[in-house]
Amino acid sequence: MTWLVVGLGNPGPTYASTRHNIGYMVADALAMRMGGTPKNPGWKKHKSGRGEVVEGRLAGERVVLVRAKSYMNESGGPVSTMAKFYGVEPDHVIAIHDELDIDFGMLRIKLGGGDNGHNGLKSIRQSLASGDFFRVRVGIGRPPGRQDVHDFVLKPYSSVERKDLPVYVEEAADAVESLVTVGLDQTQSAFNR
Fold first, then answer.
1. Smallest Cα–Cα separation from 149: which of 97, 101, 81, 87?
2. CA angle, 52 as apex, 96 and 82 as ends, to 5°?
3. For position 115, what pLDDT does the model report?
4. Catalytic residues
5. SS3 of 140, please?
6. 107-111 and 134-139: which strand pairing?
7. Which of 65, 126, 147, 164 could pair with 54 in a Cys bridge, judged by C-beta atoms 3.0 to 4.6 Å apart?
8. Are 65 and 31 in contact (CB under 8 A)?
9. H helix intervals, 34-183
10. E strands, the chain, where?
């Protein structure tokens, strides 16, 4: 059975280091675990033109990593296209995304649920006609003071956060690996806090 692991984010260098792109960062870490290198993580343009993929094995399981080539709010079309192409049902889709309602440095893993105002998840739910996919929710916390949420998620991490970010990205990648090998219950026990 193939797992479709989708790192949510926005394409292009302008967004590369922003909070909204934590899904891309975790997908890059997973690509390294599947044989990529920092200079060449192994991303290849999918023939649909809707995303980049890395195909291979992760902890012995068949995995297709995906980075959509659309903006976050339109993630559903590429995810649906890839799911159909690889014959993956929603219960074998894992979306890695930023989560405002979880503090920076914290993770939550779950199956199903609503979109909680996250437009990327909303788009995926609509395109798959199901919310029954896994989510690796990577906390970014709420914006300070009265800062607009949109501005906050599209800004780079603070200098303090950047010190811990590599460890945090690897931990989220560990959670994905755990999901595909030991399942939801054990993964939640190990990573949800």
1. 101
2. 70
3. 82
4. 20
5. coil
6. antiparallel
7. 65
8. yes
9. 76-86, 119-128, 149-153, 159-182
10. 3-7, 44-45, 51-58, 61-68, 93-99, 107-111, 134-139
Place of tokens 């788009």: 123
Compute the chain's Rg from CA coordinates: 15
**Cβ proximity of 102 and 108 under 8 Å:** yes
Q: Cβ–Cβ contacts within 10 Å for residue 11, how many?
A: 17
Tell me how many degrees the CA angle 190-58-89 measures, rounded to the nearest 5: 85
| 3-class SS of residue 146 | coil
- Encoding tokens for residue 188? 């939640």
The number of residues making up the chain comes to 193
Residue 116, pLDDT score: 80
The ranges of the chain with pLDDT < 50 are none
Closest CA to 99 of 109, 89, 91: 109
Residue 40: per-residue pLDDT: 87
What is the identity of the amino acid at 88? V
